[in-house]
Fold this protein.
Amino acid sequence: MLFKNNEYVDNQCTFNCDKCGLCCQHLRDFGDLYHDLDDGTGCCRYYDSRTRLCRIYEIRPLKCRVEEGYSTYFNSISFSEYLAKTRLGCMFLKEKYGSHEQNKV
Ligand code: SF4
Ligand code: SF4
């Protein structure tokens, strides 16, 4: 598995984060896993709507990190399956909320 410029690649799947910020703005779409980060609106308290980036990126929780999140929370499935599900989750958010929200400031 390789990681370069926000792209994860293994022998079966590629996942590329385009930094749209939709996952950080819609924590409730992931059930209760991120409830401790919820600012009361469903958005993460550490999300910067101006830059669309994480304000605590270097020390963000394990559940916000692809590899560590997999090892800690999701390792009952293969890493390829996990990447595929992650990619589907991103597509779901983009379809549900659309590009207008990606540009919300
Ligand atoms: S929704 Fe997906 S593509 Fe957008 S920031 Fe989150 S992980 Fe990256
Ligand atoms: S801590 Fe950072 S990466 Fe995690 S949900 Fe909040 S803004 Fe997103």
Summary: The two ends are 34 Å apart (CA to CA).
